[in-house]
Amino acid sequence: MNSKTNFLSFLTPDLATEILEKSSLELIPKGTEILRTEQYVKVLPIVIDGLIKVYSRFNEKELLLYYIAPKESCIMTFYAALKNTPSKVFAITEEESKVLLLPVRYLSTWLKKYPDFNILFYSQFNLRYSELLDTIGQLLIDKMDKRLYFHLKKKLDITQSSSIKMSHSELANELGTAREVISRTLKKLEIENKITQTSGSIRIINSW
User: pTM of the full predicted structure?
Assistant: First the structure.
């Protein structure tokens, strides 16, 4: 595989070459909405570097469904593209991200021609299904303090950071709750010596 396709090393060389020839590689700024709810999908993203978060909207509330990390794509976008139906989710870049945008008109051909392309999305489906079950379990069983703690821990793990810099409102949007609830819960976690908050930065200092 040549240097131009090194970042697609998780695919076979022939598929990587064809994808690169027909797709565009873009550097997308942090906080950019790359997919809107009810939008018809024209391109399918594969994250090369960075992080994208995928949400669902219920009336006036939003809920973070999953992150798209490097070497991953969006199974909800993939399904909408194949069925030519409006997207049920929206996606925003968590940080500046290098994203390969695959024109959806080639998907059917690639799925037939390259078996490993199917495997990529079957594995994505399994991953997202497992994450969805975890989310449902947390909503049904866990109290907000535990949900928030493990949400923060997941963000730290996936971004490989030591601290999180985001507003209480942003955290509330990700967890589908109110800013006031997040503020109270963060204070509770801080009193319990599980986190610290300084200058808009949140750091985990003790395990649950």
Answer: 0.78
